[in-house]
């Protein structure tokens, strides 16, 4: 496996995944979409809402605001796994939204009005819980809050006399639980830009080449010979990824997390396959020992061979460029 990054921006990464097969490339795509943890507002306590929008509308908008989640996979616990009574600095972030319109001018309430709130929480033993060491000062704040040239996310508008007083609790989660935890807004990949496998030859109306023009990725491969035949066992090996992030995670960090998660999933499959093999080996050992006396080493070989048949190394290295 080889990863070659072609373009890296603040919220986008374009790379080539080489020497892999299609199922593995698609698994990486699905992990980038649904399996990377981020922080998102999960609980909204509304003390005052005199705007024209109902509470549920505002709560939904707040939940969909991307929050800075750098290193939350390592430093923040899932709330369900934390030792605190409800929520604490080790599993959550609290934000306040307090704003009131006192003039004739309409106020536009945006994500930049969210402010971090210090937390004091206790564990089940009554000890105070300190925040994790290593979190950035802006952890949990809305993305792009410090950029003047980027318009923040609109939450609602307030006229004179209207007010919002809201306390929010952001927790760690993944996109499989809710879309608000998704770190990416779009993930796609392409393979076979010259259509060597004739996949697009079955889906066109009049002119195949006009309806399926060459993409920019065609420069990465050599054009095929006209009329040449492709081996029946040929498979795509290079995949051209384009990933757009929400801003909650840095694109390169997101890619590294995705590869780590992919390795964990593959290791879990290997271990699951090892267990029945080991059990079969143990049963064979017991049967051999029962039926054979004074035979040394005959029983252990069968079980060891069964385990070796499933042995797969999960320490696959990645070649970065």
In a nutshell, what does this entry contain?
This protein has 321 residues and is of the alpha+beta class. Helix content is 26%, strand content 23%.
Task: Explain what you see.
The structure is a single chain. The chain is α+β, with helices and mostly antiparallel strands. It has 2 domains: 2-34 and 185-251, Gyrase A, domain 2 (2-Layer Sandwich); 38-181, RNA Polymerase Alpha Subunit, Chain A, domain 2, CATH 2.170.120.12. 26% of the residues lie in helices and 23% in strands. The protein contains 6 helices and 11 strands. It has helices spanning 22-34, 55-63, 72-75, 208-211, 251-291, 298-310, and strands spanning 2-8, 12-18, 38-49, 92-100, 107-110, 115-117, 154-158, 163-173, 184-190, 239-245, 319-320. The chain starts with a strand and ends with a strand. The model is unreliable at 291-316 (pLDDT under 50).
